[in-house]
Structures are given as structure tokens and as C-alpha cells.
Amino acid sequence: MKNPFSDHHILADLLMNLQMALQDAGVWVCDIPSPFAMQSVEPFCIDSMRFEQWLRFVMLERFKVMLSQGQALPNRCHISPMAQDAFKGLPEDKIRAIVRCLDRIDQHLSNDS
After folding, report:
1. Total-model pTM
2. Please, are residues 26 and 15 in contact by the beta-carbon 8 Å criterion?
3. What integer pLDDT is reported at residue 83 of this predicted model?
């Protein structure tokens, strides 16, 4: 049985790696979504914000709350296909780095690590 405490620490490290990959790709600095945009019920808030906004202000923030409160973690977060499409204008090595981070997060949450 996995230790939940360790799972949370591992995820925190993986999220930091994702943040660094987003910063390196130049997509970390983005506008804060409006309160209206944050209320979207669409997957990835696709109707109200750019994907990099969703990653930074929705996904990462939700994970931070889960980690800080010791909440149970989701068992899947398969979003790398969306990243491949959303970041197709970036250099290939930057896309690969972001996708690799997202794949590692999914593997960890899926207990495939």
C-alpha cells in the first residue's frame, strides 16, 4: 500500500516540474482569468480561457489545495493530448517537456509510477 504522505510529496515535485516546463516554454506568464471564466463547466474551461491559463490557475491551484489540506488525490488526470494540441505553435522540445511532465503526473496518480 502506498503512503499517502509520500504520494502528496511526489505530486508536489511533479507539479513544480510542470511549472518549470511552462516557464521555460514561455507560457507561464498569462492573464488571470476573470471570475466568469473560472465558472466554466466545460472541460479545461475551453470556452472561457486558454489552456495555459487553465493549467496555471485551475489545475495547479486545485492540486495545491488538495496537497495543503491532505485531501485524497484524483486517480487520473490524462491531459497531455490537450497540451499537444494547445501548444502546437511552440518549439517541439518545449511541447515534449510539458507533455512529459503531464504524463508523469498522470502516471503517478494512476499508480503506474
Report:
1. 0.89
2. no
3. 94
